[in-house]
Amino acid sequence: MRVAACITTRNRPHDLENCLRSLWGSQIKPHLVVVSDDSPDITVQQQNQQIVQQYSQTIYIIGPRRGVCANRNNAVNATPVLETDLVAFIDDDICVEPEFIASAIARYTQMSIEQRNTTILSGVSHGSNGYMMVSGKLSFRGYFCASDVPETVAIHASVFPRQFFDQEQWDENIFFGYEDAELCLRALKRDYKIIHCPELRVNHDAGVNGSSLMVSDVGKLTNYEISIEAARLYVGIKRYKDLFPNLLKLISFCFIYFLHMTAYLSKRASLQAWPEIIRRSRIQKLWQVS
What we know:
The chain contains ten helices and 13 strands. It is of the alpha/beta class. Strand 1 (3-9), helix 1 (13-24) and strand 2 (32-37) form a beta-alpha-beta unit.
């Protein structure tokens, strides 16, 4: 089976080099790797291009610089539909274990063709700080929690059927945060199944501490914290309004979200962040008539 890896990168040539080295050092090599580069600096772009040129079957493209979702769409849409069976999304600060691709292929070969086309595999992402990310589900309030029946994935350690991205794309209204959970909600609505596969392992070397979003923004909140809360609001409303419509849950979610967020912002002496959370959530898009 042909596996394509989509790498999204921004301003981290050293991490990109490590990421590519781990992928091409795999027991079974990827069929294709696409690097979509959101770096705004031409010098960094040139560095990344030079790194990519060291690896055959690796394509370098310039990213749209509209957030991680747009960058992932840019990468996956560059993978040839007729030449790709499976796709994995690997951020530049991720190093896959040598058996990652082989383990995914082994799992899929045990399935019927119909099952392969509607099954998403999710493994384990190990953080350098000891944190471990696995599949789970979203609670009513939109927080990640454990589940014996997976409804979300550990995105960096997951493999999707390529055909799914002919049906759906990453939601570009989400700048950062919960984008993988929202995508999984749409997959579940299309009757896809998520399977937890602990043998699919990757190492997340930087995590949020290495993110450019970890800078002060409004009040005492970081850019990362505001983006996460904005995404949780957007995904919560979309979940109960459009994906799995339930008016009572929608009203309850909004009431609880605004009540708890007001208390949280007040405690952090950051009530002035409310307008930015609303603006960044882009919830107005959910009521626009297409």
